[in-house]
C-alpha cells in the first residue's frame, strides 16, 4: 500500500488522511471540532472513556482506536487491556479499537491464548464470517 505501517510517521499520515476524508461527511463545525479533538488523542486518559456525562459518545471509541494505533508498539493484548480498564463503555471502545488494531496487525499478532479460548461455536461463527469476506474479495 501507500503507507508503511511499521513507521510512526506513516500511522500519523494515515490518521491525518482519514480525518480529512471524514470531514467531508460531517454536517457542522461542532462535529469537525469533535473529530479533531479525538483524532489528536495520545493517551487513553485523554479520551476520557469514563466521563459520566458523555460516556455513550460515538467519538470515544474512535479516540480509543487512535490511541491504540499510536501506542501499538507495545502489544495487542496490552492495548486492549488498557482501554478496557479505562472503564466507561469499555466494550464499545474495545470493539472499535480491536477491529482497527486487528486490521493493522493481522491475525498472527493476535494473542494465541485468546483465540484458543474461543468456544467451538464462536470459532465456527467467526470462520463463516471470514469465509464470506474472502468470497466477496474473490480470494480462495
Molecular structure report:
The chain has 140 residues and is mainly α. It folds into 2 domains: 8-109, no CATH class; 110-139. It is 66% helix and 0% strand. It has 8 helices and no strands. It has helices at 8-23, 29-39, 44-47, 59-70, 76-85, 90-105, 112-116, 120-137. Helix 1 packs antiparallel against helix 2 (29-39). The protein is globular and about 45 Å long. The mean pLDDT is 89.
Q: Could you name the key traits of this structure?
A:
mainly alpha, Ribosyl_crysJ1, ADP-ribosylglycohydrolase, single chain, 2 domains, 0% strand, 8 helices, Ribosyl_crysJ1_sf, 140 residues
Secondary-structure element order, N to C:
HHHHHHHH
Proportion of beta-strand residues: under 5%
Count of folded domains: 2
Uncertain parts:
none
By DSSP (H or I, 4+ residues per run), the number of helices equals 8
What is the β-strand count? 0
Query: Gyration radius, to the nearest Å?
Result: 16 Å
Q: Give the CA-based shape.
A: globular
Main beta sheet: strand number and arrangement? none
Query: Taking all residues together, what is the mean pLDDT?
Result: 89
Helix content: 55-70%
Given helix and strand content, the structural type is: mainly alpha
Taking the alpha carbons of the first and last residues, their distance comes to 21 Å
InterPro entries: ADP-ribosylglycohydrolase, Ribosyl_crysJ1, Ribosyl_crysJ1_sf
Summary of the model, kept short:
The protein contains eight helices and no strands.
Amino acid at each position: 500500500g501507500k503507507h508503511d505501517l511499521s513507521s510512526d510517521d506513516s500511522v500519523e499520515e494515515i490518521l491525518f488522511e482519514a480525518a480529512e476524508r471524514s470531514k467531508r461527511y460531517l454536517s457542522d463545525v461542532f462535529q469537525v471540532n469533535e473529530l479533531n479533538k479525538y483524532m489528536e488523542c495520545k493517551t487513553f486518559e485523554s479520551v476520557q472513556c469514563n466521563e459520566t456525562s458523555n460516556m455513550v459518545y460515538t467519538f470515544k471509541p474512535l479516540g480509543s482506536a487512535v490511541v491504540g494505533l499510536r501506542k501499538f508498539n507495545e502489544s495487542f493484548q496490552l492495548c486492549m487491556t488498557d482501554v478496557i480498564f479505562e472503564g466507561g463503555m469499555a466494550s464499545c471502545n474495545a470493539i472499535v479499537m480491536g477491529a482497527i488494531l486487528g486490521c493493522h496487525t493481522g491475525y498472527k499478532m493476535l494473542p494465541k491464548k485468546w483465540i484458543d479460548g474461543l468456544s467451538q461455536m464462536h470459532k465456527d461463527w467467526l470462520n463463516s464470517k471470514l469465509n464470506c469476506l474472502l468470497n466477496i474479495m474473490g480470494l480462495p
